């Protein structure tokens, strides 16, 4: 059972009325409320509480009535009074971003214009100002996954719903970058873009005419990396590329490109180009023509039609590696590929080490529309999830030496993590798309509830779990006690 600490309970519903909050410092040893919900806010499906972690602060909103972006709040994640901001009426929503220069709150107004609402690192309230340099059309903000500039763009989806490859009539994007200063215009990166990839402080931009450009996102200036590129993928480290050459749209060569030397080595041939990148609009072929790259090994495998293994190569030399005969490619985990082995009656999955050619079966069972996926693996064991067809799954553990398998966790959801003490952290669906945050102990077989009916959450493994819902904004330790 989850019991709130007394100090936090006394603060409930008073925080956003500027009442004095209990003081505390990080790290925490128990869940604590750091803000109550806005007065007049009632949780409904279309008015969910939202939060964003911005360094040591939390930007959060409890949307009110028909003006969901009419206010937002900022609070230190380790205590203090929340600060309320009222940017303007008619905001659809607000979102924060830490750039190299500023900590920014952006807003999208009812005309779908992007505005800089405030620089949180600059004293005082700036007041809303449109982002300069953008065309008079509807664009959407695409926040960086971590600290970095704000990307702003528009995707024009094709009828075929194909993306990531040039000159096939697929999805194209317009893309701008803004670095947070309201006086400096956004920088345009292109308007016929089929894909882009951030490498350090540069952006590789792939245009529909086949050009691949290395762009400075602060100036828009670029260097031409390659021409005639059908599709490309970045090898870990950012200095090598796998790229397919534009050709007859049927049989096209694939090269390994060294960005430092400029050398290209042909490593494969895509003789199924017309079937690649979901062009047949078939879920079973979505990965055809893409590469599975091992994160902990210099190897990559090319998906062929129906998950056939079209090629396996070394990414350091370009040398080819022979895969097991008749196997199909089902993914990559750590330093090994996941393969489906040939069997007429059952689904058989194995791990294949391209270094040693070792092949170890870890699953054998009935054919299913929801195949298992590896959650964790060692030399002698695999933990895998079996989806239930909804938003949850079951975790199983198999001993590769004895072949014995058993349920490890009966039900897991989003962001499932194995904690250092052997427990499992997970987020399970609750009512109306809300979530419950729990910890499961395999030794006792019991779940412990951290929080219920959560609207939004953010996990910072170094500090804790931020979560918001009907009872306000809370900060809980991670790993949980």
Distance between the termini: 13 Å
Number of strands: 37
Could you estimate the helical fraction of the residues in percent? under 10%
Content-based structural category: mainly beta
Kindly report the spatial arrangement of strands forming the biggest sheet.
1-37-36-35-34-33-32
Name the average pLDDT. 88
Structural notes for this entry:
With 481 residues, this protein is mainly beta. 1% of the residues lie in helices and 47% in strands. The chain has 1 helix and 37 strands. The chain has one helix spanning 6-11, and strands spanning 32-35, 50-54, 57-61, 72-76, 83-85, 91-98, 103-109, 114-119, 129-130, 140-142, 150-156, 172-178, 187-199, 202-207, 212-215, 222-226, 229-234, 240-245, 252-258, 264-270, 291-293, 299-303, 309-314, 328-333, 336-341, 347-352, 359-365, 373-377, 381-387, 393-399, 405-412, 414-418, 424-429, 435-441, 446-460, 464-469, 472-476. A 7-stranded antiparallel β-sheet has the order 1-37-36-35-34-33-32. It has a 7-stranded antiparallel β-sheet with strand order 10-11-12-13-14-15-16, with no helix packed on it. A 4-stranded antiparallel β-sheet has the order 2-3-4-5, with no helix packed on it. It is globular. The protein starts with 5 loop residues before the first helix and ends in a 5-residue tail after the last strand. The model is unreliable at 1-23 (pLDDT under 50).
